């Protein structure tokens, strides 16, 4: 969304635009007014200006597995079609599926970034290919059936207002909220699945009209007045939505005058909702949030000696699209600090979109790897890889070298 892409149609181009950059967080409950929130942000920024971060945040390494271009990224694989790598989801075995928005594909990968099966095309408003996929979720239920009667195993949403599904046999358009279908034109930037009242629902972040679109298991649209945070400043819209423990975390970005997200210092909020749309609380406000999109709960084993630190129980990582930082919060929203490399400098990923850990059911991947996807070079190109301890990264590198010899 940062720059207009020359290889996209005029309709697609109208869905994509420019962003900018900056850096510095705090969190609060939703029962506090905005003046109190602002005071907490300023106090937190002052106290963290010369912060000494916990040792467990340090000495992490980034491993780049796939890039759409060769060069400084030194990825293990160069795949020209891997452009603007956005949403990611895992199947039960741990294979990551990564959407590439600019090429309308979803790549099905191994833990090391190789093709598990060929990439699948994502439908557009007018064809079976050419979509602009952003969010993606894995579906292990028997709901969300395709016209064939088989349940979709993966569901996609896109900047073109399309929700589609894939099952063995191909991808199918399921919901059309594009201008081609008589609607104002949804811009879906994130997707989640959750259970409410014993039933499965889909939730799509509709950035264009500032709301979460709700769909039942038959893709019938539900109430559009839910998911409201009364303390959210004017001008913010849902940028992504994620299910963590059957609580829905909505990440908000500021909408610019041109209708596209702005980046910059403190431009972001995160609120938590029940699957029925009821607000639970504000999780994080301003501060180091910078057009946040990625969010993940930290599993045991990601941080060294994590059992020693009570702050790490159910801790949350939030990834900023705006500046590429990945920041750690306690379960109740207290800011801890950014992930740091072996030089104790923040790990920074240009055009960062997704951050995700493999599911506990995974059998073919290291569960402590934090995978990421990004739209590097102002979203012209794509990057996929993972973050892990320095020791684990060196071991993986040695194994790869030995395999190639």
UniProtKB/TrEMBL annotation:
InterPro entries cross-referenced by the UniProt entry: APMV_L690
NCBIfam families listed in its UniProt record: PEPCTERM_chp_1 (TIGR03118)
Name of the protein in question: TIGR03118 family protein
């Amino acid at each position: 969304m940062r720059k207009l892409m020359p290889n996209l149609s005029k309709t697609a181009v109208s869905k994509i635009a420019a962003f900018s950059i900056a850096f510095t967080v705090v969190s609060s409950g939703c029962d506090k007014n905005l003046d109190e929130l602002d005071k907490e942000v300023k106090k937190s920024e002052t106290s963290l200006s010369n912060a000494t971060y916990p040792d467990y945040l340090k000495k992490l390494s980034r491993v780049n597995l796939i890039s759409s271009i060769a060069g400084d990224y030194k990825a293990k694989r160069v795949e020209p079609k891997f452009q603007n790598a956005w949403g990611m989801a895992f199947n039960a075995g741990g294979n990551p599926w990564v959407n590439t928005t600019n090429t309308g594909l979803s790549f099905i990968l191994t833990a090391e970034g190789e093709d598990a099966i060929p990439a699948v095309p994502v439908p557009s408003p007018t064809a079976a290919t050419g979509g602009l996929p952003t969010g993606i979720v894995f579906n292990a239920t028997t709901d969300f059936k395709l016209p064939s009667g088989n349940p979709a195993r993966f569901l996609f949403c896109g900047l073109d207002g399309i929700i589609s599904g894939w099952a063995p046999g191909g991808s199918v358009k399921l919901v059309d909220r594009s201008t081609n279908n008589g609607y104002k034109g949804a811009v879906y930037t994130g997707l989640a699945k959750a259970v409410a009242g014993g039933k499965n629902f889909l939730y799509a972040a509709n950035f264009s009209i500032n709301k979460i679109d709700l769909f039942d298991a038959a893709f019938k649209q539900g109430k559009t007045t839910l998911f409201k945070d009364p303390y959210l400043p004017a001008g913010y819209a849902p940028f992504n939505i994620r299910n963590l423990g059957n609580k829905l975390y909505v990440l908000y970005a500021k909408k610019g005058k041109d209708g596209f997200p702005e980046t910059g210092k403190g431009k972001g909020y995160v609120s938590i909702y029940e699957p029925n749309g009821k607000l639970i609380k504000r999780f994080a406000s301003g501060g180091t949030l910078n057009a946040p999109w990625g969010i993940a709960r930290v599993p045991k084993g990601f941080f060294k000696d994590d059992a020693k630190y009570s702050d790490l129980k159910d801790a949350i990582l939030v990834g900023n699209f705006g500046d590429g930082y990945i920041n750690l919060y306690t379960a109740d929203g207290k800011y801890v600090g950014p992930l740091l490399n072996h030089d104790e400098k923040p790990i920074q990923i240009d055009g960062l979109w997704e951050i995700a850990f493999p599911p506990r059911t995974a059998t073919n991947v290291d569960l402590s790897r934090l995978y990421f996807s990004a739209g590097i070079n102002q979203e012209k190109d794509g990057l996929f890889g993972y973050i892990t301890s320095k020791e684990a990264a060196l071991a993986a590198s040695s194994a790869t070298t030995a395999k190639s010899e």
